[in-house]
Amino acid sequence: MGKSGIAAVLDGGDRLPPPPGNSDYDVVVVGGGPAGLAAASYCGRKFLRTAVFEGDCWGGILTRWCPDKKIDNYPGTPPGVRAEELARSLVDFAERSGVDLIGKRVEEITRNGEIRTGNETYRGNVVILANGSTAAEAGIPRERELAMEGGGVFYRIPDPSRFRGCRVVIVGGGDTAASHVQRLRGVASRVTVVHRQTELRCGREEIHAIEGDGDCEVCLQTAVETILGDDRVEGVRLKDLSKGATRDLEADAVVMAVGTMPNFAMFRNLGVSLDPKGQVATDPWQRTSVPRFFAVGDVCSPLKMIITAVAQAATAAHQAYAEVRSPYWK
To answer: In angstroms, rounded to a whole number, what is the distance separating the alpha carbons of residues 99 and 314?
Structure first.
């Protein structure tokens, strides 16, 4: 493979050759982000034969969206730990727990626990859905057209250097918007944050990251009415929601930071119940409406935080053990 160990795993490769298709497991976890890796690890530590599937990159959003992001709100880690470093720790924990890390994209899940990847089929006595979320669209006119390759509308910043010298508008006022500001500072020629509310909705440290040295303009009670430009972004039309006035602001790129939506395409046919926000509905033990199916992380949690995803993962693993082994205390 050219790379070995965790480096290969983070790049989407397998640490060891995967078991042949048609393998049976006690637990199958779909999704290799923090929730999925933690759930698989805790199942492995309970001596359940466990496999976790990831078809993109191990670490989920941590490595796919912002590998160099500094994380300051995960207890027990050094301040400013990079997202990729935390992902490596989670992968290492799964490896040490005896979990099979299978770098294949899950294409279908059936109610009897079958997991299909291409021409291969695996089966889990218990299935834990941890396939995360994707960035939500803001619904701004011209957004979808200009989100095409080269159009200038983005939903993530995997490489800040791509925005060097650009005038960037960030839509949103939460932690993700703050992270974008932090990573673009000193790279983009101008950063403007546009938020519909009267105040930012991120934490104190994140607010400081946005305000910084005053080199980032923050437009509160303001909405992007439309994105300007034919084939690519040339600017945005801003509307002051308190006064109704509009103005045009030149820009080279627009980055959406308006939240996420759960990835539920794979389990749409499972018949799992969803909550009003389109997330998988679970009970306190992370059980879904389908027997022996659990959900953890962004597919079901109202809080999109690593710490809540990992806590849900530990809860689901505990109950998965009860389902598989039927211990005396069940």
So the answer is: 15
How far apart (Å, rounded) are the C-alpha atoms in residues 264 and 299?
7
Question: What pLDDT, on a 0 to 100 scale, did the predictor assign at position 6?
Answer: 47
Task: Tell me the DSSP string of 46-65.
Answer: TT--EEEE-SS-TTTHHHHT
CB-based contact 114:292 (threshold 8 Å): no
- pTM attached to this predicted model: 0.85
Domains of the chain, earliest start first: 5-134+260-325 (3.50.50.60), 137-256 (3.50.50.60)
Question: What are the helix (H) ranges across 199-248?
Answer: 204-211
Q: How confident is the model at residue 26 (pLDDT cuts 50, 70, 90)?
A: very high
CA nearest to 194, candidates 216, 162, 214: 216
| Residues contacting residue 3 through CB under 8 Å, at least 6 positions apart | 11, 13
